[in-house]
Amino acid sequence: MLGPMERAPLLLAFAWIVALVATLGSLYYSEVRLFLPCELCWYQRIFMYPQAVILGLALWRQDFGVWPYSLALSLIGGSLSTLHLLEQKFPNLFTLACKPPVPCSVEYIPQFPIPLQALIAFALIALSMALLAREARVVR
Fold this sequence. Notes:
mainly alpha, 0% strand, Bromodomain-like, 140 residues
């Protein structure tokens, strides 16, 4: 069984990998597949992209005190992802500020919507940070 000193770096590494994959995935969708991001997509990116850098630096420095910053970014980003999913499923229910050329109700991948992918990433990072918070208290 792993102790707090072994679990904390693993949680941080997992969160960083999730953030990195989510960041690279969104770049793939927009730069390779040429999916135009809507306004809510941009806001979600604002809360995901910095985490790839922040969590990577924290992992490199073994700075377990990063958890409140990443958790806050993930909770806000996850809320935006939830709002985006609702907009896609119930487009007439919301009057969001999404403007052309890409309204927020556009679904590029109906089988596995991009906002759902982002929500899963934000949730995994938030869970990792909540667990890291507990481990960080023990490590100190």
